[in-house]
Every structure is written in structure tokens, then in C-alpha cells.
Amino acid sequence: MGKANNYNYGVVLDAGSSGTRVYVYRWLKNALARAQIEGTSRLPELETKDKWTKKVHPGVSTFGETPELVGNDHLKGLVDHALRFIPKDSVLNTPIFLLATAGMRLLPDDQRNSVLASICSYLKTETDFFLPDCDVHIQVIPGETEGLYGWIAANYLLGGFDDPQEHDHGKGHHTYGFLDMGGASAQIAFAPNSTEAEKHANDLTLMRLRTIDGRPQEYKVFVTTWLGFGVNEARKKYVLELQKEYAVDDLIEIPDPCLPHGVKLTFDGKLIGEDIASQQHLLGTGAFDECLRRTLPLLEKDKPCLDEPCLINGQHVPAIDFDINHFVGISEYWHTTHEIFEMAHKDKSYDFTTYQQRVSEFCSQDWDIIEAGIDDKIWGKQTDEQTAYEVCFKASWLINILHDGIGIPRFGLEHIPSSTNGTKDLIDAGKAKGFLDPFQAVNKIKSTEISWTMGKMVLYASADVPPIHEQDLPVGFGSNVAGIPSDFQLPGGGLLQPGSLTIPDQSITGKITDTIFQSDAPHRIPGFIFFLFILVIALFYMRRRKTGAASAVFSNRRTNSSSILARINRLFGRRTKSVDYDRELEDGNQPLYDPNDFELGGMDSDEEEGKLGSGYVSPNAQRSGSKKAGISGRLTPDIMDRNGLLVRTESRERFDIGGRKSRNGSLSPKRVPR
What we know:
The chain has 19 helices and 19 strands. By secondary structure, it is an alpha/beta fold. Helix 11 (352-364) packs antiparallel against helix 13 (385-406). Its EC number is 3.6.1.5.
């Protein structure tokens, strides 16, 4: 077998507001990873490369009125690109996800559903990727889910999960906060300090991963999204306010301080020439200080805060402890601070004073000078006219979001009080190392792009690892409550309902009990009558257990228990086990559930042997001076069956039917985004 067969593969299509990008990931199969990775209390190691990604414009949301075209006109090139890097014999077992974000959230329900249905139909009929259920694999994800995936990706690449001792921020905290901003929305995700985590426990998301050796890791993360607060949507609101303020019929040129001096734009952001300048338009004044003042009210910080504290738009966010919460920002945070102003050396920290000075100088220049600079590539090879005239507004919006919205200190302008854990010293000492400032914009870490899609696949690969204890809870995330919450999301994207940890070979008594006591059981009353009948028989046998067949059942199973149900369980061979659940909680709290609450049968690990090929590079490959590999077992379908029940095999988060993956799935997407 070739070395390509040592890997599992996964494909994620990030369907954003401005375009769709395909990502291909791979990781070693379970047996190889355990055999070859030193120190297996680490997460599966994913590999991806720049050439494995491709983006097309515009976004899938533009197919709202022509959904039948989304396959051939939009997806085909992305799918063909992904297939170039996946071995043919691995395609059938390679899951594909298309997860849409803010652009699709803004579509009317009927258009959104039509686009999702067309995507599903195209991928199921025109490709051989593993796609068991379109409701799970093709959907519009909430901004909170996007933010959580991004938080996972950032901490995975930075090493906060695998090497907590090397990322000690004080107060037992070793993870990083995550900021993302696109065209339509912005997200924040971070683990609050222990005081805030206890105070706002109901607002946190409980997220569970699993390391190569089967041990669980758990984190409590706050995640929220601000829909409509991405740069493009904020710009639309800003222009509307200008139009209202200068709503005079005979005023042709509306002054816009957030445009470079002298540039003329239509209200929808198109450059206009002198020949059509007679129509009402925006005229750039290049007054960046005024731009900052005008964009500040767009944060809507004056909205009522129903659940203190709040940051932006009246939305609740626990207090951020900047002593320990160090944020990395991607997407627009990176592009706006680095693409034009050349601030970026990989680990150079964000400096408010330097950044604002450079933006102000750029925007105050005459547009003719800027255009000449674009032609001469002095602003960078990737900078075109649109990038140049948009950057002034984007920079003002970013600065206001970061400092007046989120509250990140302004280095160079504001004094940062020292703290008991020596935050200022940590910051100063960590400049060369990077990522110890309260905020730093990043694009890649160790040559790997930070994308929320990687967080999605880290969860998926982690779920393929068999647990160390058969009663360990599955990988995924949901509300911060004991046990398994009703909104628990599995790595495949489905919901895991409470009480769904059932065993495929469940005993007769267990089936009877489930039928009777499930609140939604359609035959609850007849089931109860049947239960009484079984109970009478059981009592009859218990009275005569010293003779006949009953004595054979009970002779070796005597107990002091007075529970009738326990005796029935023994009569039909049902057993329970009690095992310890070894988990890692960042804030050191006690486990959130009683391991005896769930009964799970045994499982067999179906691991594959093989040899690791040379040249493998992963985000953690440079640790300990050796190359390391990623892991996974077989990629198998979602653990959710069509009734919402968990079907367990080797890792409990997948199912296998007759040795082959089931490829049956619904053609209908979710009717509303979750």
C-alpha cells in the first residue's frame, strides 16, 4: 500500500459572503499515529498546504435567484481542485462539508433553502465524496459556531492545547482569545478567567476534544457574533447615515472623510470618472480623525444592555481579563493592518500609534498620487484601486471595534496598569516570541493559515480516536451543563439528544424501559401495561428462585439491593459499569457529570497499520526536533441516525454498516440555519 493510504482526508468548503474557498486536510490513521508520535497526549495532527486551497468569487449567496447554476458555475472548479490532492481510493471515505456563513444568513429563507438543496444535489450526483446527510454536511452555520471553530484552530496551531506549560499566561490560563471579521459579521471567542467563568457559567460553551491516546480535553469558552458588524455591512450603514445627513437635492458631492482625498465613488462603492460626476456621489476628504469619530456611533454602544456586561450592540460579553486573555485576529484584522501598510513581520505586535499614523498619512494623500503608487506597486503587489480606497474606512472600523468596542488597550496612548502576574513584563519579554500582547493580527502560524475550517476538522479527526474509557462522553460542543445537553453538536454537525447514549445490543429490559419512559414514545401506555406483565413474571420467579429454571438465573447473582428494576436487569442479563472519567479542565473545576449516569457497551478498535511517508509536515512538526504525524481512524458517518440516536462503534462518534460507509442521506438541507 502506498503511503497515501496511511492518511484520512477531509474537505471543507468555506462559503463566505465574498466567495467560497475549498480546504483539503489530511491526518494519519489511528494505529500509525499512536505508533509513531512521541507523547500521544496530543491532538491529531492535521496537514494542509497552500496549494490545497482555492477560492472563487462571488459567494454562493449570489445564487439566491438562480440556485440551479451553483453547481457547474461555482462548485465544479473547487471540487475538481480538491480531487487533485486526494487519492482516488480515498475519495469514497473522504467527508465533504460546505458550511456557509454570514452571506447566506442574510438571504431570505426560501432562497437560502433552494441554494442549499442545489448544492446537496450537485455534490451527491456529481462527486463520490462521503456525504451521508446533507442536513449535517451542507448547512448555514451560526456565527457562534464559526467563532468556536476559529478559536479551536488558533489554539491548535499556537500550541495552547498540546503544550499548555509553554503558554502559561498566569492564573492557570493557557489558551488564546480569537477575533474574526469578514464582510458581514464579526466574532469573538475566549476562555474567561475562573472568576468570570463561574459568574457567567450559563453563557459559556462546553467544548470537548480527544487526544491521540484517547483522553478527553474540555474547555469552557465564551463565543458570540455580531451580525451586521463586518466591514462591508458597517460601510453600508455608514453611507446611509451620510446620505441622511446631506439629503439636499442640489448637493452633488457628499463629503466622505473615510475616503482618500479626491476619490469619487458611487454610493454602492464604484469609482466614477469626470464624465459622470454630475450625479450625486461621495467625495473623499481624507480626514481620518473625523472618520474615526463618525464610525464610532456605528458600534451602537448606547443600546440597552439587558445582561451586564456588554460590549457592542447591547450584546452580553463577560468581562475580559487582559492580564491573561491575549487575542489573535484573522481575516480583516490581518488584511487591513498588513496588506497595504507593510506592518507585518510575522511576530511583530500590533501597535496602535504606528498603525493610526500610517493610515492617516495614507488617506490624506491625493487620490492621483495613490493611483500612481498602485501602478508602481509601492503599496504591495496585491493592492489594487478597490483595496486602496476601502482601507481608510476599514482601518477606522477596525480601530473602533478593537479599542472602543472590545476594550483592547491602546499601546502608546494608554497606560497599562501592572498586575500581580507581571503582564507588562510578559508582554515586553514576549515581543520576539509573539502572541503575548493583548492583540496581534495573524495570518499564518508555522506556515499554516489560520482558518475556522481547520477547527472543524480538528474536531472531526479528534472524534475518530477511540476513548480511553468506554463511558467517556463524545467529542463535540454544547451548552455548559452537566452530562450531554440538548444542543450538543457532534463533529459531523448533527445534534446529540440527552439520553441518546444507547447500546446497539441493548438488553430486552433496557429496550422495555426506554419504550416506557421516553416522553415521546408513541406507545407509552401499551408499553407500561407490558412492563407490568413482565414485572409480575419477575416477581413470580423471584419467589421461586431456589427451584427450577429461576434458581439457575439467580443462584450466582444474589445481592442486597431492594430495587425491583435491578432484579429485572439481572434477569435479562443487563449490566452496568463504573469507570473514572479522566478529563482536563482548564479552570480546574470538578467533572460536570456522574460517569454512572450513562451505560455504554464495549467496543472494538479497528486500527490500521502502515508506514509513515517522508516529508510529512504538520503545524506541530518542529517540536522536539522531530517530525510528527497526525492521526485518525477510519472516517465514518455521523453518529446521528435519522431518529437522533447515537449509534456506537469504535469511537462512538461514527457508524459503520457491513464494513462500508453508508452513503444514503437526505437531499433536503436544514430549513433554517442553526
